[in-house]
Amino acid sequence: MPTYKDEKTNTWYCKFYYTDYTGTKRQKKKRGFKLQREAREWERNFLETQQADLSMSFENFAAIYNEDMKHRLREHTFIQKQYVINKKLLPFFGKMSVSEITPAHVRKWQNGLIAYRDENEKPYSATYLRTINNQLAAIMNYAVRYYNLKDNPCRKAGTIGKDHADEMNFWTTEEFRRFLEKVSDKPPAYTGFLTLYYTGLRIGELLALEYGDIDFEECLLTVNKSYQHLNGKDVITPPKTPKSIRIISIPEFLRDELKSYTKRLYGIHKHDRIFPYTKSFFEHEMVRGTKDGDVKRIRLHDIRHPYVKPTTKKYENNNCKHISLCLQLLFIPSWK
Fold first, then answer.
1. Annotation: CATH topology of 56-166
2. For the chain, what are the domain ranges?
3. Distance from CA of residue 260 to its chain's centroid?
4. 182-233 per-position pLDDT tens digit
5. H or E segment at 157?
6. Could you tell me the pTM of the whole model?
7. What topology does CATH give the domain 173-329?
8. How far is CA 18 from CA 5, 22, 68, in A?
9. How far apart (Å, rounded) are the C-alpha atoms in residues 333 and 177?
């Protein structure tokens, strides 16, 4: 692997030929290395990712996997995968050859995850353990399917964690009423949580709602996009799954609250977001509304569960008159 020194800048560079995926021979040049060994390592890593030989390091193979996956996944999902790979997989497997990773290696890595405790002596949740383990299994399956790795060592090693939490937390109608009282001084928080609880929207779907998505005459919400704030920029994508594109019927009291709230948004247009905030705003408000212990703390995502389970079919009928008894009896505090 020839490397060269640039006398003018007192740095090293590498220059070499390689064959790309089309069979075309190309030249590659990379400058700016402080040390000669850094230039050689960069060249070696580059050639490994081009040749896709399973004797390459797991770190380099993960780069190939990422390059493929980023074209097939939603940006938010891809970023989450990147975090797990970089923080939970590469520190252990990064320098190992893909073909040399054994079930024993996987078991040792799993045991380290199970034994982990943070500064408060709290372990990883069972669902997070499963998520991390599944990511390793996915990369090794990718090697089996597309690069002729003989076996996936994760299969023999077995899995860890659980697909679902043992207990799903949610607020009863009374708990939600008490929570609303605590955030009713902030109209965006109050109206946003009210919408989440009685529509089953995911937080990204709520944040993507535009003024034109509300049909005030028919009591309908159109859900066809999702919002995330990623790497310092606003990103609008389709919802989580194709089935998530839907029209939801809402109760009249929620329609009235949304109408009152949006009237206060000066100069709002059809394609303006009615909740121009990020997920962290609502997470902060959840902390504020539960910090006194009067209402138990749940995840932001769990607010939608009372809607999803018992009332989805009623709302899918697109009929505002068919509202469950708990909605009719709920006392809604007002900020008006």
1. DNA polymerase; domain 1 (1.10.150)
2. 1-51, 56-166, 173-329
3. 32
4. 999 999 999 999 999 999 899 999 999 999 999 999 999 999 999 988 878 8
5. helix 153-157
6. 0.62
7. hpI Integrase; Chain A (1.10.443)
8. 21, 11, 20
9. 8
